[in-house]
């Protein structure tokens, strides 16, 4: 027999209750000890061995996968035959059928991503012929403003967690743009972000930290990962982790600017490795693998820089890099729970109680 959340999911798919009602009903029932399979929900959680809390709820079955393939193929064909503007009404029609009525999770994710892609292309066409899209400029602000507006409306209509996460990420980028514009106005420098790359990186780090804090707010509401809050936090962490990584690397002068003189392998590699290790540690503590996966690409480039200093041939240190990164992924992946238990033991008990159990 399925658990209470699966029962409510089935009820939403059959149209018995709407999705937003199920999201609010689950914690309400849990707080009052409503039984599933003849046992109180709280006791079931204690009796069931805890193994993994990061299973995305949009992965349900091959039925969703088959429909998702049809969505991608049909929208691609419509895009090619008609125009980009014909895709929007198709997205809305499909969302009404597959999301609002049938409550299919994976098609909802794909439709949201398609809408984000549609927004990016239409906004670029609308701003065609404008000046270079420099961050902090008028064109960049108009471009990024389109995402929280369009995706926010999409979320209000269909309550898709990914749509809310993308709305929040888009809003964070808009805030970054507005802060840079305000600093440029206060200093009288229209190219403030170009002339002050360090302050640009610090502002980007502040926005990334804010995004991470908001993701943690959703996470702490649902440490057992049973409600929609967990899904929203999953997508926010997926965006916050690379934002933190690359903004910190940018502050270290690894992307140019006033600290370009520090762009040497001897300096770059320790910074990248230390940042990735810190994100991996955070990922273990909060039980989010997004912090591990986001840094693997940068870790690979850092290790590539180390091995390139030797006398080996090009193909040799490429393969050594791949082997090293692959080994790290396997060690962390297979030993995730033992490593997490080891890390959690070092934390205060009060913090352990708020985080997903290990």
Written account of the structure:
With 358 residues, this protein is mostly helical. The chain is built from 17 helices and 2 strands. The two termini are 25 Å apart. About 8% of the residues have low confidence.
Termini, distance in Å? Answer: 25 Å
Write out the strand line-up for the largest beta sheet, numbering strands in chain order: 1-2
* Helix-strand category: mainly alpha
What are the secondary-structure elements, in order, as H or E? Answer: HHEEHHHHHHHHHHHHHHH
**Number of discrete helical segments:** 17
**Multimeric status of the protein:** single chain
The geometry reads as: globular
Annotation keywords:
358 residues; mainly alpha; 17 helices; 73% helix; 1% strand
Q: Which secondary structure elements does this structure contain, and how are they paired or packed?
A:
Blueprint: H1 4-13, H2 19-31, E1 35-36, E2 39-40, H3 41-47, H4 62-81, H5 87-101, H6 105-126, H7 138-158, H8 161-187, H9 192-195, H10 197-221, H11 228-251, H12 265-286, H13 290-293, H14 296-308, H15 314-334, H16 336-344, H17 349-354
Antiparallel strand pairs: 1-2
Helix pairs in contact: 4-5, 4-6, 5-6, 6-7, 6-8, 7-8, 8-10, 8-11, 10-11, 11-12, 12-14, 14-15
